[in-house]
Design goal:
Blueprint lengths: L8 E7 L16 E2 L2 E2 H10 L4 E8 L6 H5 L6 E4 L6 H12 L6 E6 L7 H12 L6 E7 L4 E4 L5 E5 L5 E10 H11 L6 H7 L4 E5 L12 H19 L3 E15 L3 E3 L2 E3 L3 E3 L7 H13 L5 H4 L12 H14 L2 E11 L9 H12 L6 E6 L5 H4 L3 E12 L2
Parallel strand pairs: 1-4, 1-6, 4-5, 7-11, 16-17
Antiparallel strand pairs: 2-3, 6-10, 7-10, 8-9, 12-15, 12-18, 13-14, 16-18
Bound molecules: magnesium ion (MG).
Length: about 400
Amino acid sequence: MTNAPKRGIVGLVCAGGVGSRLGADRPKQYIDLNGRTMLEWSVEALLAESRVSEVVVVVSAGDGYIDEVSTRFPERVRVLKTGGATRAKTVLNGLMNACFADEDLVLVHDAARPCLRPAELAHLIDSVLEDDQVAGGLLAVPLADTLKRVNHDGIVEATVPRAGLWRAATPQLFPVGILIEALLAAGEDVTDEASAVEHLSLPVKVVRGRPTNIKVTEPTDPALARIYLGHAMNQQNSNAAPCLRVGQGYDSHRLVEGRPLIVGGVEIPFEKGLDGHSDADVLLHAITDAVLGASGLGDIGEHFPPSEEKWRGADSAVLLSEIVRRAADKGFHVVNCDATIIAERPKMGPHRPAMRKRIASLLGVPEEDVNIKAKTNERMDAVGAGEGMVAHAVVLMEKRR
Ligand code: MG
């Protein structure tokens, strides 16, 4: 295509139909396919291509469904209620009213082709842009069936050689100005944009598309479209990068006499215990905050305010379990946890296996996904003087949809 650099690419989706051959109670572009209308799938198929800056949807003036559906369109989509009696008229009205630049390239797409795949759309655009001999191009599929010409009595007159015959699909890609000129010249009988451009004797490139880009027309087609769309969705999900979030937690508590020492959900024999409103398990508090951090749920104080009497003496293991459950409600599940406890006395090392086991069970992960490290503070500062303990934790979580 000549002087191609830096021309915008826009989309125009023809959704002017008002009837349905499918036996549905609504125009076919509004039937449900795996949770979205056919029209939404067709629009999103164009928007999936990053070079497409906006999409105009052309519907008929009396369309009673578009207002509700269009609330779900992204900002890059405009709706024009200027559909005509024929496809050619709908496209022409859309182009005349959309105010695209003449030199922009427009992808004209059928609302009834929801199964267009990003790769074939990109292939169409690339193939047309890199060929400076053509005015534009379209997706098409070579015919696989043997063709018969049949008379009115249902008798074969001839077998038509299928070599060189293709089924035209959409999108069809042309410069806006050329397409308007072609449609004005060709009149309303043309059934696709390419044939209008052909009337101007301009070369049109055929780009091989996928046979799955069906035009939903027959009553059996929606079921097929649902299968193709479901397959594409599964592929997308399995290709999708995991949604991972890391969270960090820190806590400190004083050591006082007359309290049991509970760290990492394990009671440790010692002459002092950690002081606090709950059982003051410094390690579980740091891990709880890390879980909250990874799942974007704030901090432990917001969930269990010290001002509330019911948390007095609370078992921190119960609090952590509750937070893991609240994170799971948002789709977040623990991948692993690494934590450090800093204490001068007593020695934490011997208790690490029991802590690891307890924490793994509270987080709902295997023991090997929990790591507990114990350090002293080398007798420095308050922790080093044995006045209290500190804990740090990081937790990685995965969001599963
Ligand atoms: Mg605490």
